[in-house]
Amino acid sequence: MNGADEKRIDGKTIARRIEEEAAETVRRLRESGTEPRLVSVAVDEEDASFASYLRSREQACLRVGIRSDVVVVPAADPTRSLGGALEKLSADRTVHAILLKLPLPPGADEAAIFARIDPAKDVEGLHPLNAGLLASGRPRFVPCTALAVAEILAVESPSLAGKDVVILGRSRVVGSPLAVLLLRKGTDATVTVCHSRTRDLAGHARRADVLVAAVGRPEMVTGEWIRPGAIVIDVGTHAIEDPSAKKGWRLAGDVRFESAEPACSRITPVPGGVGPVTTAVLLRAAASAAASAAGGDR
Hints:
Blueprint lengths: L2 H5 L3 H21 L5 E7 L4 H17 L2 E7 L4 H14 L5 E4 L9 H5 L13 H8 L8 H13 L7 E5 L6 H9 L6 E5 L6 H5 L4 E4 L17 E4 L3 E4 L7 E4 L4 H4 L5 E2 L6 H24 L1
Parallel strand pairs: 1-2, 1-3, 4-5, 4-6, 6-7, 7-10
Antiparallel strand pairs: 8-9
Helix pairs in contact: 2-11, 3-11, 7-8, 7-11
C-alpha cells in the first residue's frame, strides 16, 4: 500500500454502516406493508456527473430495498414545471421522499420551488420549515451532502472542539448547513466559511485543521492551500474531459488530489469519498420519512 492509499478516507466503508441502518428500517416497514419510495426530480439537461451519481444511487437503493424513481421535467419555464412536479409528488401518498436535483437552471425561482415540496418528504432539508428547524437546533432533515461531511468527520476526527474548520463555499446544500452542524454544542468547532468575495482564500485555507472544499470548481484547491497534517474533505464532483479515459471524461473533485495528498493527513478521494456517504445518508433519510408516514397512517 502506498502513501496515497493510506491517506485516502474510505467513504464506502462509512456508507456501508449507514446503509445497514437504513436497510433495517426498510425491512421493518416492508414487513408492515409499506414500500419506501424515493423520487428524484430533475430538469432535462445533459449532466454526466449527475448520471454517474444516479447509477450509484440506484444500486444503493436496490441494496437497501427502497423503490427509486426519476421524474424529468422540460427545461422551458423551470419554475412552473418543477413546481408542478413537486406539488404532484407531495400529494402522492405512495411517495415518501423527494430529492430535487441542484443547481436549479438559471432563472428558476428557488424560494417558490422549494416551498412546493412537502416538508415531511423533503429529505434534502430545502423547505423553509426544515431549514428553520436546523437553524434552531432541532433538525428534521439536513442537506445530505452536509450531513455526509459531518458523518465522515465524526469518524476521522471524533473531537472537533476548538479546531479550525474552513469551509470553501456557502451554498445552502453544503457550506451553510455544515457550518451550523459543526458550530453546535457538542461539536464546538471554530468554523470559517469562505466564498467568492473572500479575500486571500488560500490564506484562510492554510489555517485549517480541517479543510472542506465545496466551491464547485474542478481541482481549484492545490497542495499550496493545505496546512501540513490537515484533513481535507473534497465535496466536488465534476465530469471533466480526459482523452486518455475510456469514456473521454473522468470524475474530479474541487481538490487536485495529486498536489494535495503530500501535505494532508487524510483526504477524501473523488470518486469514493463523500459521494457514497451522501447517498447512504439520503437513503437513511428516505427510510426515516417513510417510517414517519407509516406511523401517521396507523
